[in-house]
Amino acid sequence: MTEERFHKTEFAYWIGIVGNIFLAALKGLFGYLSGSKALIADALYSLSVAGSSFAVLIGNRATKHQPDEHPPNTHGKAESIAAIIVSIVLLIVGIEAGISSLKAIYYGVDSPPKAFALIAITISILIKEAMFQYKYYLGKKLSSQMMMSSAREHRKGILSSFIVLLGVSGALLGNYLGNIAMYMLDPLAGFIVSMLVVNMGYRLVMESIHQTFDRVLHDEDVADLLRTVQVVKGVIAVDHLKAREHGHYVVVDIKISVNPRISVLEGNDIAKTVKQILMKRHIHVSDVSIHVHPYDAGYPYKNNVDPEHETFPSMLH
C-alpha cells in the first residue's frame, strides 16, 4: 500500500479506537451513576470494538514495518498473542456482565435507571453513526474491503445502543406507568448486549489464533501471483512459489530461473523487478523472498529473455 493510503487508513482506525474508548468511558460512567446494567454492557461492547480496530491497526503496521533483521511474521505473531490475551479478557468481562444482568432479572429490580442515562445513549448513537459514515466513505474511496468491514462494526454498535435505548426507555416508562415488572427491561437489554460482547470476544480470539500461525495458500489462491511472475521480462521459469497467509497479509517465497549467460548483477535486477511488481499489483503481499537459479542450458529459453543478454559477459560458466 502507498504511503498516503497507509496514513489515511491508520488515521481512520485511530478515530475508531479513540472514539470507542471515549464512548466506553462515557457509557461506563453514566451507567454506573444511573444504575443501568444495559448501559454498562454497551460500554463493554464499545471497548470490544476498539480492541478489534486496534488488532487490525497492528496488523497493518506489521505489514508495513517488518524489520529486515527479523524473520518474517515474528512480530505479527507476538502481536497476535497479545490480541488473544486482550480478547480473552473481553470474553470474561462480557460473561461476567451477562451473569450480573441475569442475577438482576432473577432477584428482581427495585428501581429503574436514572433518566440521564438517555443522554449517554443518544451521544453514543450519534458518534457511532458519524464514525460509520466516515470510515465507509474512506473505504470506498480507497477500495478497501477491510475498511468498509470495520465501518460496519460501528453500524452494529448502533444496534447495541438501540437495544440499550429500548431497555432503559422501557424501564423508565414502567416507572411512569407504575409497572414494576417493566424495570426488568434494563437488565434484559444488558444481558442481550453482554452476549454481543461475548460473541465479539470469541470472534477476536479465533481470528487472533488464526493469525498466529502461517497458513499456506492453496494452488488456486496463488495462480494470480504465479501469472504475475511468469510475465516479468528475464524470468524463464518459476521453479517454486509458496505463499503463506499471516493475518491480513501474505508472504511469498519464490525460486526463479534466469538465463545462465547473464551476470549476477542482472539476475539480481530481475529478482528486484519481480518483487516490486508483485507488491505493487498485489497490495496484500507484504514481503517477497526470491532465489535466483541459472536455467538448465539443455532446454530452449522462453521468448521473454532479452536476446541482447547473449552478448553480456557471463559470471556463470
What is the compact description of this entry?
The chain is an alpha+beta fold. It has helices spanning 3-34, 37-64, 74-107, 117-142, 145-177, 185-212, 223-230, 264-281; strands at residues 215-216, 237-246, 249-258, 285-294. A 4-stranded mixed β-sheet has the order 1-2-3-4.
Please state roughly what percent of the residues sit in beta strands, choosing from under 5%, 5-15%, 15-25%, 25-35%, 35-45% or over 45%.
5-15%
Main structural class: alpha+beta
What is the C-alpha radius of gyration, as a whole number of Å? 27 Å
Strand order of the largest sheet: 1-2-3-4
The separation of the N and C termini measures 41 Å
Describe the structure.
By secondary structure, the chain is α+β, with helices and mostly antiparallel strands. It has 8 helices and 4 strands. The chain has helices at residues 3-34, 37-64, 74-107, 117-142, 145-177, 185-212, 223-230, 264-281, and strands spanning 215-216, 237-246, 249-258, 285-294. It has a 4-stranded mixed sheet with strand order 1-2-3-4. The two termini are 41 Å apart. Mean pLDDT is 79; it is low at 66-75 and 309-317.
Helices, strands, pairings?
Elements (H helix, E strand, L loop, with lengths): L2 H32 L2 H28 L9 H34 L9 H26 L2 H33 L7 H28 L2 E2 L6 H8 L6 E10 L2 E10 L5 H18 L3 E10 L23
Parallel strand pairs: 3-4
Antiparallel strand pairs: 1-2, 2-3
Helix pairs in contact: 1-2, 1-4, 2-3, 2-5, 2-6, 3-6, 4-5, 5-6
Membrane topology: Multi-pass membrane protein
Subcellular location: Membrane
Protein name: Cation transporter
Question: What distinguishing features does this structure have?
Answer:
317 residues; alpha+beta; Alpha-lytic protease prodomain-like; Alpha-Beta Plaits; 2 domains; four-stranded mixed sheet; 8 helices; elongated; disordered C terminus
